[in-house]
Amino acid sequence: MEEQQWAMTICVLGNFHVLTRGRAVAMPSGGKIEALLSTLAIRGDQGVPRESLMNVLWPETDPSLAGASLNSLLHRTHRVLSFEADSVSPVRLDGGWYRLNSEAGVTTDISRFETLVRAGDRHKDRDELDEAMEAYARAARLYRGDIIVGTDVRAVIERERLRAQQLDVLAWIADQFFDKANYPAAIDYALRLLSFEPCCEDAHRLAMRAFARRGQRARALGQYRLCENMLRSEFDTEPEPSTRELFDRLKRGDVDL
Questions:
Q1: Is 0.85 surpassed by the pTM of this model?
Q2: Helix (H, G, I), strand (E, B), or coil: what is residue 252?
Q3: Which of 108, 172, 106 is CA-nearest to residue 140?
Q4: How far is the CA of 228 from the CAs of 154, 170, 202, 242, in angstroms?
Q5: Which of 35, 38, 73, 195 could lock 149 by a disulfide, CB 3.0 to 4.6 Å apart?
Q6: Starting at the edge strand that comes first in sequence, how are the strands of the sheet with 48-49 ordered?
Q7: To the nearest 10°, the Cα dihedral for 71, 73, 75, 76?
Q8: Is residue 237 part of a domain?
């Protein structure tokens, strides 16, 4: 299903918002509707059993009261969002498990991101690099930031799994642009990667090399100092030998990097 055909998209990457046919829905931030949809978005097709959902939304609450609250919340969610999406109910109950209603055209930015990553992977495996670049670049644009909702172990694991995929995507794109001598684009993607993972030495090295190829030796040297400071601040360690060697070559004026 193409992007414009989705009746509703629940977005949890970077920040929470809801799109209906590509248009943002005005709704208050925080609150139980956001918590409900975010929890279901993170769990994906697996869904959440009723008891677990009540425990997430109303921890340490009497089950009968939590159950009544959940019923009320589901009704309110349907009333708020179904009007926006041609009466599509965003949540369905299936065998005691709650899921987002994908059959009615409800999706998530997580699902769309992973679909594009898988498409990029397939193209890369077939050596269709232009098509892989297009899919990966679209995925990278969808990833506005890490999942910022959910504190349970499963949410943390999901956050780190998706984050790793985004880092791999950005690194691959940056490498491709460097190989094509498109150094501004290589720098842009390397720095985007560093905005997620400031201590990634591969990205620091690529940025240093790309700056040097552009004749921006001072910026290349400054990138090393940034790398050095980040590693010392975060891990009380020094850059890897390969990073220090690259720095030494830059100091000597070597641009064939």
A1: yes
A2: coil
A3: 172
A4: 33, 22, 13, 13
A5: 38
A6: 48-49, 97-100, 91-94
A7: 160
A8: yes
Tens digits of residue pLDDT in 80-123: 886 555 667 889 998 889 999 998 889 999 999 999 999 999 99
Boundary of a domain, candidates 108, 123, 148:
108
The H or E element that residue 10 is part of is strand 8-11
CATH of the domain at 11: 1.10.10.10
131 domain residue, yes or no: no
Residues in Cβ contact with 149 at an 8 Å cutoff, skipping those fewer than 6 apart:
12, 16, 34, 35, 38, 39, 42, 155
Spatial CB neighbours of 148, under 8 Å, sequence gap ≥ 6: 12, 14, 15, 16
Residue with tokens 């009544």: 68
Q: Is the Cβ–Cβ distance between 152 and 56 less than 8 Å?
A: yes
The residue range of the domain holding 205 is 181-257
Extract the tokens encoding 74: 């589901």
Summarised one tens digit per residue, pLDDT across range 215-242 is 999 999 999 999 999 999 999 999 999 9
